[in-house]
Design goal:
InterPro entries: ADH-like_C (IPR013149), ADH-like_N (IPR013154), ADH_Zn_CS (IPR002328), ER (IPR020843), GroES-like_sf (IPR011032), NAD(P)-bd_dom_sf (IPR036291), Zn_alcohol_dh (IPR050129). One of its GO terms (biological process) is small molecule metabolic process. There is one protein chain. The protein is an alpha/beta fold. The protein is globular. Strands 3, 5, 6, 9, 10, 17 and 18 form a seven-stranded mixed sheet that branches. A six-stranded parallel sheet has the order 13-12-11-14-15-16, sandwiched between helices. A three-stranded antiparallel sheet has the order 2-1-4, with no helix packed on it. It has two domains: about 1-150 and about 315-345, Medium-chain alcohol dehydrogenases, catalytic domain (Quinone Oxidoreductase, Chain A, domain 1, Alpha-Beta Complex); about 155-290, 3-Layer(aba) Sandwich (Rossmann fold), CATH 3.40.50.720. About 30% of the residues lie in helices and about 25% in strands.
């Protein structure tokens, strides 16, 4: 049986919508009928085919990409446990081996043999996908599929925000894409004293304000000195916490420069290529700089579920556009022009 799928077939900007065979689940897999799949910043890297994508994914093409999903289990392998046909599920995208040192010490998200759904394996931009049953997260059927498909990126924000304390802290968040805005909302809900949102697009900064930002800084506006604005907003002391969501060298360096001594920087952004960093400045500040990779399995998912259920953060507001899967290029066009926030695709 055939299905519509979105393929990365060439090492250049673009994609191809074409038929694929519906996959058969292995003994430890489930077959999921996709109800909603959303476009992520990583997908933009792949679509544009920048240096990161070429180095990370080049050997995998042709393949089906995409990784944010909500759907329904329609078939199960004989070894599957704890799941049922008809369950609504989303996907933890880090497919871990289960036997390496990292997996055995509670760090499956940085498994030594990890495969990433939609990066190393066929992904979610299709009518069906197979997934190891351990990576299927069961959703409350009351949650709309479009919102449920966003749990993976919301989980990234959860992991980044709660990498340390935020209650009573002054927090700077750079990069007002969906994950950055989610981080603002999470910090506000967790009791941050002041939230500084730094971005380059007024419409996205407006979302940050709606989600609880106290100070908005548009680095694209003429005459704006982001470093000065942050220092002025913190009475010259700098931020207690810096969350980097932009994947921008200038954002990273400004965030470190405006971090108070002893502060915490948690870095989620993916950078297209290496860049220069003043490590001596980090040393003399005794700053704590942590890389964030995905979600803690499955601690971040339980926290995400709690925030979704609380209704305290209007995550659903981030869905600005919906298209059919076959119209996916319209979705990428919207995001590349920064005209929307979250684009949800429905087969």
């Amino acid at each position: 049986m055939g299905m519509t799928a979105v393929w990365k077939t060439k090492g250049e900007q673009g994609l191809e919508v074409k038929e694929a065979e519906v996959p058969k689940p292995k003994d430890d897999e489930v077959l999921i009928k996709v109800k909603a799949t959303s476009i992520c910043g990583t997908d933009l890297h792949i679509y544009r085919w920048d240096e990161w994508a070429a180095n990370r994914i080049g050997k995998n093409i042709p393949y089906i990409f995409g990784h944010e999903v909500s759907g329904e289990i329609v078939e199960m392998g004989k070894s599957v446990k704890g799941l049922n046909a008809g369950d609504h599920v989303s996907a933890e995208t880090h497919i871990s081996c289960g036997y390496c040192f990292q997996c055995k010490t509670g760090n499956e998200h940085i498994c030594e043999n990890v495969k990433i759904l939609g990066v190393d394996t066929n992904g979610t931009f299709a009518e069906y996908l197979t997934l190891p049953y351990r990576n299927a997260w069961v959703n409350d059927k009351k949650i709309p599929h479009g919102l449920a498909s966003m749990q993976e990126p919301i989980g990234n924000a959860v992991h980044t925000v709660f990498d340390g304390e935020v209650a009573g802290k002054v927090v700077t968040v750079t990069g007002m894409g969906p994950i950055g805005v989610c981080a603002v909302g999470l910090c506000k809900a967790a009791g941050a004293e002041k939230l500084i949102a730094v971005g380059r697009h007024a419409n996205r900064l407006a979302f940050a304000k709606e989600f609880g930002a106290d100070v908005l800084i548009n680095g694209k506006e003429e005459g704006v000195d982001v470093k000065k604005e942050i220092m002025d907003a913190t009475d010259g002391k700098g931020s207690d916490v810096f969350l980097e969501m932009a994947g921008s060298p200038s954002s990273f360096n400004t965030g470190i420069e405006t971090l108070r001594p002893g502060g915490r920087a948690s870095i989620l952004g993916v950078f297209s290529k290496p860049f220069e960093v003043d490590v001596t400045g980090i040393v003399f500040k005794a700053a704590k700089v942590n890389g964030i990779n995905g979600r803690k399995m499955f601690d971040s998912w339980y926290k995400t579920k709690s925030f979704l259920g609380s209704g305290r953060i209007p995550f659903e507001r981030l869905i600005t556009h919906k298209f059919r899967l076959s119209e996916i290029e319209k979705g990428f066009d919207v995001l590349m022009k920064r005209e929307g926030m979250k684009v949800v695709l429905e087969p």
